[in-house]
Write a structure and sequence with these properties.
Elements (H helix, E strand, L loop, with lengths): L4 H28 L7 H7 L3 E6 L3 E5 L1 H7 L3 H5 L9 H13 L7 E8 L5 E12 L5 E10 L1 H12 L1 H10 L3 E5 L5 E4 L1 H7 L3 H4 L13 H14 L3 E8 L5 E12 L5 E10 L1 H23 L3 E5 L5 E4 L1 H7 L3 H4 L10 H17 L3 E8 L5 E12 L5 E10 L1 H24 L1 E7 L4 E4 L2 H7 L9 H5 L7 H12 L5 E8 L5 E12 L5 E9 L1 H28 L1 H27 L5 H29 L7 E3 L1 H18 L2 E6 L7 E3 L1 H19 L7 E9 L5 E7 L6 H6 L15 H11 L3 E6 L5 E7 L17 H5 L8
Parallel strand pairs: 22-24
Antiparallel strand pairs: 1-2, 1-5, 3-4, 4-5, 6-7, 6-10, 8-9, 9-10, 11-12, 11-15, 13-14, 14-15, 16-17, 16-20, 18-19, 19-20, 21-23, 24-25, 25-27, 26-27
Length: 802
């Protein structure tokens, strides 16, 4: 093929220049599309070119490390490039003009200038800018690629000097080059093109029909080239070319016409740039965008975005499905029509305040669904800012809180009910933190009970000022037990109000652990003043009734009592007469008189002891709490009742268990119960004539570890109805009975935390038993008092741990 060498040299030089530009463009396109937005920074920093990001409003936003490293600048210095010597002085004016005007263009633009390296050397760079658009085609920012073309510039000079060097450069250029005649016929291709195709130039000449172009692209490609060959317009298209191994790869085909001095096209130079990786990157990006859309639509919340002025422009599918409307219906301010009218003003004020301050917004409002029902949502909006801090977009999420709102309403109702219940029951709750000794009242009722100001923090010391002075040791002990890790805290304490009034308080608490690991006690306090006063009144009534019962028993034992008293009195009289005779003898029997006087003293003491026991049993006095040996109490009682039983010809068998533990209670009241059971048993056998009249009194430990006493008779027995009603008040089977003995006995035993019952014997008669639990700790006897704190009782009721 013969060619005009100078013309060919010039044409190849231009082609080479275009080739280098296209190579740089290809690198930028391939690199820019290779990663997703989340990997953009890494991509920019690793690209083999300088990258800048330019905002249409604010100018340079960012640059990659390669560019900053080349310049030796920081990003802040680069933003002020017009005040530096970054651009060659000869190129500064043109560069500044280009920078100011390229953003007014609506397309890709390129510019060449010399840029100073960190060591002061200026090198040629091609600056190529591409816009990034949103879904509506608006330009969000520009991405610029600064490709070092200094070597290219020098190569252009070298190519002008030698055709051989030009051919070598063309053949070694990393791109596919072809030349065409004005008619479109293929003239020449570089070695790389032939190597890629695996064809000869002759084979390439038949490219429209030999499969060089992908069958799906050939028609369009032929149409584009014919149009350019006919009109002279530059060629710019994308197509797939078959490689020698049969694989098709995407190429960007760009062609420029070479014209003679008269403007006639004499040749076409075309550069094919491999963009297969870029196309795949674009496809991956498109897929990523689709996936992002799917992800946003799948978010279990109503997602939206808006312009800086608040006008909405995006709603995810979940939002659209919920309200049952289209994007056009909701765009701008149309979404407000779905907000409940009562909430719209409050929601609008919250969003307006966020726009004015640039801060995030949060507000609760009701949103109407497609079913015409409103549900509560929490609207949250956050701003997206540019590098200057200006808000460029708003993003929001509306989260359904309908269930939470209902739960809150139920909680409010529950708290109101709890408060009412606490007021009715005079009960309040509290939490005590052991480490800090901080105590918190969780109800107004506690403030009312203690008569504290609810606005003042509560402390243990403050509570101690209300505790009765006599109960301070009890409170101190219980607090120490809590610190020591004792689990249960149930005790009673008295409060003394500033005006002298006394309140009774029941405290129950249990240990727990907070989320932060702190040990706490959670409990309740109940004002039991009215209950305690009622209990004291009941105790006094029970004491009176017990006394009446004892007095009524006194009449039945008159003969036995007279015998017990008369016997020592008779002995005293006899001894006194004997002593007088001994003293009147001559000589007087002094030693005999002394012995007679000693017997007189003995009988006097015996009479005094009988009277003392009678006074203890039948005197009217308040209840006392002491440690009682039940066996000993029974023996003292038998001394008064044995004669009465013998008068009725009743054989009494006594079986007292050895080493019987002591119990806690009122000795006289317990003796009264035993006396009632003995006399009832004696009455039960009084009419028996066909067998001996026998009553058995025994003590023992039952299977529950309680002290048990049983009185068993062999009388006529008791019918089932009487067993069930025997302990009812005013119920009796005796013709002259009052029906209060067993009722009083049950009251006494239950007051001692025990139980009393009756049962029919297997043979004849009946058995009456009672059982009383043992104390858990040693008991200190207490004298009768009108206001004994329950805490003192707790020490003998088996609950030392409060």
């Amino acid at each position: 093929m013969e060619m005009d060498i100078p013309q060919l040299t010039a044409d190849l030089a231009r082609a080479n220049e275009a080739l280098h530009r296209e190579v740089a463009e290809r690198r930028f396109a391939e690199d820019a599309l290779r990663a997703s937005e989340s990997e953009l920074r890494l991509t920019l920093d690793t690209l083999p070119a300088g990258i800048i990001v330019v905002s249409p409003e604010t100018g340079i936003m960012d640059a990659n490390k390669r560019l900053l490293g080349y310049l030796g600048y920081t990003l802040e210095i680069l933003k002020q490039w017009t005040t530096t010597d970054m651009v060659h002085p000869d190129d500064f004016g043109g560069t500044l003009k280009y920078f100011r005007t390229f953003m007014t263009l609506d397309r890709e633009s390129r510019f060449e200038t010399r840029i100073r390296r960190f060591d002061g050397v200026y090198r040629w760079f091609q600056v190529r800018n591409n816009p990034l658009r949103d879904a509506d085609g608006r330009i969000l920012r520009w991405y610029g690629v600064l490709t070092d073309i200094d070597d290219q510039k020098k190569a252009e000079l070298a190519l002008r000097e030698s055709e051989g060097q030009l051919r070598l450069a063309v053949n070694t250029t990393p791109g596919l080059i072809a030349t065409f005649a004005p008619s479109g016929a293929a003239e020449d291709v570089n070695a790389q093109f032939l190597e890629y195709l695996g064809q000869t130039i002759e084979e390439f000449s038949n490219w429209p029909t030999n499969g060089t172009v992908h069958p799906a692209d050939v028609e369009h490609h032929v149409e584009v080239l014919r149009g350019s060959f006919h009109s002279g317009r530059p060629i710019d298209t994308e197509t797939r070319l078959r490689r020698f191994d049969g694989a098709y790869r995407w190429f960007q085909v760009r062609g420029l016409p070479a014209k003679d001095a008269d403007g006639r096209i004499i040749r076409w130079y075309c550069l094919m740039i491999d963009i297969d990786d870029r196309k795949h990157a674009e496809q991956a990006l498109a897929a990523s965008e689709r996936n992002l859309q799917v992800t946003v639509d799948a978010i279990p919340a109503l997602a939206w975005s808006a312009h800086p002025d608040g006008a909405a422009d995006f709603f995810n599918q979940h939002y659209l499905d919920y309200v049952g409307r289209s994007l056009d219906d909701l765009a701008d301010w149309g979404w407000t029509s779905a907000v409940h009218p009562e909430d719209l003003q409050r929601l609008g004020a919250a969003l307006e305040k966020a726009r004015e301050t640039g801060s995030s917004a949060e507000c609760e409002a009701r949103l109407c669904g497609a079913d015409a029902k409103y549900r509560w949502f929490i609207f949250r909006a956050s701003p997206l800012r540019d590098e200057t801090g200006a808000v460029v977009r708003w993003y929001g999420i509306n989260t359904d809180i309908e269930d939470r709102k209902r739960a809150e309403d139920e909680l409010v109702k529950s708290e109101a009910s709890l408060a009412h219940a606490q007021r009715v029951s005079s009960t309040g709750s509290f939490v005590w933190i052991l480490a800090t000794r901080e105590i918190t009242f969780f109800s107004e009722e506690l403030y009312r009970i203690f008569e504290f100001d609810s606005s003042v923090p509560i402390t243990v010391e403050q509570i101690a000022t209300r505790v009765h002075p006599d109960d301070i040791p009890l409170l101190t002990t219980k607090l120490a037990e809590a610190q020591a890790g004792i689990v249960d805290h149930d005790y009673d304490v008295r409060l003394r109000m500033p005006d002298g009034r006394v309140k009774y308080l029941r405290t129950e608490s249990r240990p727990d652990t907070q989320v932060d690991g702190q040990k706490i006690f959670v409990g309740t306090m109940q004002d039991i003043t009215e209950r305690r006063l009622a209990e004291e009144a009941v105790n006094e009534l029970r004491t009176e009734l017990a006394y009446v019962s004892r007095v009524s028993t006194l009449g039945a034992m008159t003969a036995s009592i007279a015998h017990e008293v008369n016997q020592p009195l008779s002995g005293i009289i006899t001894n006194a007469s004997t002593g007088l005779r001994m003293l009147a003898s001559n000589p007087p029997d002094i030693e005999g008189a002394r012995e007679t006087a000693r017997r007189t003293i003995r009988d006097g003491n015996r009479a005094a002891e009988v009277v003392s026991k009678l006074r203890a049993l039948f005197s009217k006095k308040s209840e006392t709490t002491e440690s009682v040996d039940l066996n000993e109490a029974v023996r003292d009682l038998l001394a008064l009742t044995t004669i009465e039983l013998r008068r009725g010809r009743v054989d009494l068998e006594v079986d007292l268990a050895p080493d019987l533990p002591k119990i806690v209670g009122d000795r006289v009241q317990l003796q009264q119960v035993v006396l009632n059971l003995l006399l009832n048993a004696a009455d039960a056998v009084s009419e028996i004539e066909d067998r001996p009249r026998r009553v058995t009194l025994s003590t023992a430990m039952d299977e529950d570890g309680q002290v048990k006493l049983t009185v068993k008779d062999n009388g006529v027995g008791i019918d089932p109805e009487s067993i069930n009603r025997a302990f009812d008040a005013f119920y009796t089977t005796k013709p002259t009975g009052m029906g209060i003995g067993l009722s009083v006995s049950r009251s006494i035993i239950e007051h001692h935390r025990g139980r009393i019952w009756a049962s029919r014997n297997a043979d004849t008669g009946a058995s009456f038993s009672f059982a009383i639990p043992q104390p858990a700790v040693q008991v200190v006897p207490t004298e009768p008092a009108g206001h004994t704190p329950q805490g003192a009782k707790a020490s003998h009721e088996g609950s030392p741990n409060a």
